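Example 3.2
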Amino acid sequence: MGDDLTVIVLGQGESRFDDALSAAVRGRAHQCISWLTDPMQGRRLLFAVPLPDSGVNSAFYQLLAFLRAHPGCLAGSVGGILVDGPGDLYTKSVARELVLSASLAGCTFPGRPLVEGVGGLRNFTVQAKNAGCGLLEAYHLAASDLTVRVLSFAPPRRNRPRLLVLHASSRATSNTLALWSRARAILEGRCDITEIGLRNGTLEDCAGCPYTTCLHFGERGSCFYGGVMVQKVYPAIRDADAVVLLCPNYNDALSANLTAAVNRLTALYRTTSFAQKAVFALVVSGYSGGDIVASQIVSALNMNKGFWLPPQFCLLETANDKGEAERLPGIEERVARFAENIWQQLSA
């Protein structure tokens, strides 16, 4: 793994973008390139993306095309992303699309791998208050911190990794659970696996308690709404080295109970770092759209909650009728590859 930083600058930005990028690399050995034509394996990478008003950066889409056409081209690399735009839209959607494509190309991302400068930098209000500085300085501090974390990140390893598997499906009909059962059989003897089904009963969604209320319960390892999240999920996440989400595609989105579970992690996140915990996903769509669900997992758990994202973190399949997923051509090989990747990314 190279110790220097490689900065992939995707186009010309305004002065604010240039200043943030300067803050990110200041005092660190680095090289800047403007185009990716060769594999960048085993590197420490910072993707720097300036956006115009339209949110459409042609160099960014050329990069996506390269990543998608060259599987493995970022194998062994660790990445972070700096995105700067003049408005409040598009920065995060661009970033999560890039993270998904780069992960599938072999790149690892530490938790919170995105620094975004939006509109008037109002997204740095809390950071500025905590640091006792202005919004622009908070932006620069975040960019600098990102490169530190990209350069220093090393995936934690365990002799016997502990997996927490979350789902909200019926075993009688679920293609997603059917594929997971095959993956689990491969991992069973090497990992400690805990499965929690969120299908039965009522799982209260987060209703946006005031920060002080959320912090109060979080400090006690709890949540105002209690239930299965507090009784089972919170303790299991504390113990886990990785969370595996089993996600049937419901209207191009996570199912309601899985969405509620992700939202309810906020109370635990107030007091518990997820930086040493990985996230994996198995997504089965009836017709299409698995990439949309995978990108939601990227933004919710990697960018927001701070789980680190392994390379090839997700298995994306398409199947509709009961049992169809198990009859897909080549499915045994793909499931085995998914299971082996979980093991390789976590094991000592």
